[in-house]
Design brief:
Blueprint: H1 7-28, H2 34-58
InterPro entries: HLH_DNA-bd_sf, Spo0E-like, Spo0E-like_sf
GO molecular function, one term: protein dimerization activity
Protein name: Aspartyl-phosphate phosphatase Spo0E family protein
């Protein structure tokens, strides 16, 4: 994840990753495969980063 991304770029990247995660779950047939878990954790990092940005704007 790039720290210099704009909010729109970060949102777009997170949405693209979410779509890839859905595709991967369908391909793997399970939520518990290592590949799915790793991608899910990566998406979690994007979400946390977006939440921190939003929180910093409010203060």
């Amino acid at each position: 994840m790039q720290s210099y991304q704009t909010e729109d770029e970060l949102h777009t990247d997170a949405e693209n990753l979410r779509k890839k995660l859905v595709e991967l779950v369908c391909k793997e047939g399970t939520f518990s495969s290592l590949a799915v878990l790793e991608m899910s954790q990566q998406l979690d990092e994007y979400i946390v980063h977006m939440q921190k940005r939003i929180k910093s704007y409010k203060h």
